[in-house]
Amino acid sequence: MSKLFEATTLNGMIVKNRFVRSATAEGMATEDGEATPRLINLMAELAEGGVGLIITGHAYVTTRGQATPAQLGIYDDKLIPGLRAMVAAVHEKDGKIVAQLAHSGMLAIPKLINMPPLAPSATEGFAEAPLQEMILADVQATVEAFGKAAGRACEAGFDGIQIHAAHSYLLSQFLSPAFNHRRDDYGGPIENRARIILEVVETIRRRVRKDYPLLIKMNSRDFLEDGLELEDSIQAGAMLKEAGVDAIEVSGGTFASGNLMPVRTGIVTEGDEAYFQAEARAFKQRIGIPIILVGGIRSFPVVERLVSDHVADYISMCRPFIREPGLINRWRSGDLSKATCLSDSKCLRPALAGKGVYCVVEKRLQDKERSKE
Ligand SMILES: Cc1cc2nc3c(=O)[nH]c(=O)nc-3n(C[C@H](O)[C@H](O)[C@H](O)COP(=O)(O)O)c2cc1C
Predict the structure, then answer these.
(1) Quick one: angle between helices 136-156 and 80-92, nearest 10?
(2) 57 C-beta closer than 6 A to ligand 1
(3) Ligand 1 touching residue 49 (CB < 6 A)
(4) Among 232, 313, 321, 332, which one has the highest count of C-beta atoms within 10 angstroms of its own C-beta?
(5) pTM for the structure as a whole
(6) How are the residues of the chain apportioned to helix, strand and coil, as percentages rounded to the nearest 5?
(7) pLDDT tens string 250-289
(8) What backbone torsions phi and psi does residue 42 show, to the nearest 5 degrees?
(9) Please, are residues 80 and 150 in contact by the beta-carbon 8 Å criterion?
(10) By alpha-carbon position, which residue is closest to atom 18 of ligand 1?
(11) How far, in Å, is the centroid of ligand 1 from the Cα of 318?
(12) What separation in Å is there between the alpha carbon of 224 and the centre of ligand 1?
C-alpha cells in the first residue's frame, strides 16, 4: 500500500491518508450563514469518498467579513447546532473536518455587509467601493472575533481549525505590502505585517486546548508588484510555528494577480501541476513544519513524488473534488488515472453567486445523457 494511504497524526488528530480537501466556499449555507442539509450532505459525501481531512469553505468570523452570499458563518453561537450536525455527518463516515476561519476584509461585498469593507489601508485601485482603514480597535475586535469563532468550532466538535491568511483576504492583506501601507505596529517590516495573525494565533491558543490542531493557509507569494515575497512569507511562517501553528497549507496569488491567481486554469500536463511546489519545498526545508500543498494537483504520480521527495506532507485539492467527491477511493481501488477536473474554474461562478458549487462540465454531460433517455 502506498505511503499516501497510511495514517498520520497532526497534533493528536489522526488523519487516515495524506489527502486533504482544500477549503471550498460552497455557497450552500442560508442567508445567515447557517449550515444547510445540502451542505452537510456534501461534506458527508466527501468523507465517504475517502478524503482524509476536509477543510470547510471559509466561514466568516464577523458579519462585516462576509465575502459571498450563502457563505458559511461562524460569527454567532446560534450557528453552532448546524456546524455540529456537519461535524457529526463527517465523523459518521470516518472522516475528519477542520473549520476554516476567515474575514474577507476589502473583499467583503458592501451590498451584503451594508458598510464599507474594512482593510489594513484604504488602498485605491483594487476594490470597487471605498474602504475603511482599520483603527486599532478594529484590529483588536477582529482578533477577538477569530478567538470566539475558534471557541465555537471547538464546541461544535471540529477536529481542528484553519486560519485563512491567503488569497488577499483580510489577514493576507495585512501580510502584503501591496495592500498594507500602515505606519503603526501592524505595518512595515514582516514582523509588523504578521502581527495581527500572531495575535489571532495567541488568542486562539488561549481559548482552545494545547493539543487542538491549528492550521494556517497562507500565501507564499502574492505575484503582485510590491506584494508579499517568499523570503517574508517564510519568516512569517517561522514565527507562526513558534506561536503554536501545527501545519501550513502553502498557496499563493491574489484576486489581482492575473494568470497567477490562487485558482489557476490551463493545467494540462504534469509539468503544469502543483504550481506552488517550489515555494512549498522552501517552506518545508526552512521552517520544518508539516506542509499541506495546494494548487493544481491532479495526477497520482505527481502526488507520490511530492510526498516521497519531501516537498509536502499532505496533498490538498479543491476543484478535483467538486467533480469527483469519490476521487480518493477511486485511486485507492487501483484506478490511478488522473482527476477528471479540467481546471476551467467554471465551478467558481455558482459557488460565489451563492447558488451552490457544482462542476459545470459534469452537469452538462449528465444533462446530455439524460436528454437521450
Ligand atoms: C469554488 C471555489 C471555492 C474556493 N473557496 C475557497 C475558500 O473558501 N477558502 C480558501 O482558502 N480557498 C478557496 N478556494 C481555493 C482552493 O482552496 C484552492 O486553493 C485552489 O482552488 C487551488 O487548488 P485546486 O487547483 O486543487 O483547485 C476556492 C476555490 C474554488 C474553485
Answers:
(1) 50
(2) yes
(3) no
(4) 321
(5) 0.98
(6) 40, 15, 45
(7) 999 999 999 999 999 999 999 999 999 999 999 999 999 9
(8) -65, -45
(9) no
(10) 318
(11) 5
(12) 19
Contact 143, 209 (CB under 8 A): no
| pLDDT, tens only, 165-194 | 999 999 999 999 999 999 999 999 999 999
Residue 100: CB within 6 Å of ligand 1?
Answer: yes
Residue closest to 150 by CA, chosen among 195, 96, 203: 203
Number of residues assigned to the chain: 373
**Rounded Cα distance, 285 and 287, in Å:** 6
Whether residue 22 has its Cβ less than 6 Å from ligand 1: yes
**CB 95, CB 136: distance < 8 Å:** no
Residue 356 near residue 26 (C-beta atoms within 8 A): yes
User: Per the structure block, which three cell numbers stand in for 153?
Assistant: 468550532
Q: What is the DSSP letter of 359?
A: -
Cα 25 to middle of ligand 1, angstroms: 7
| Best mutation site among 19, 104, 250, 263 for ligand 1 pocket (most ligand atoms within 8 Å of CB) | 263
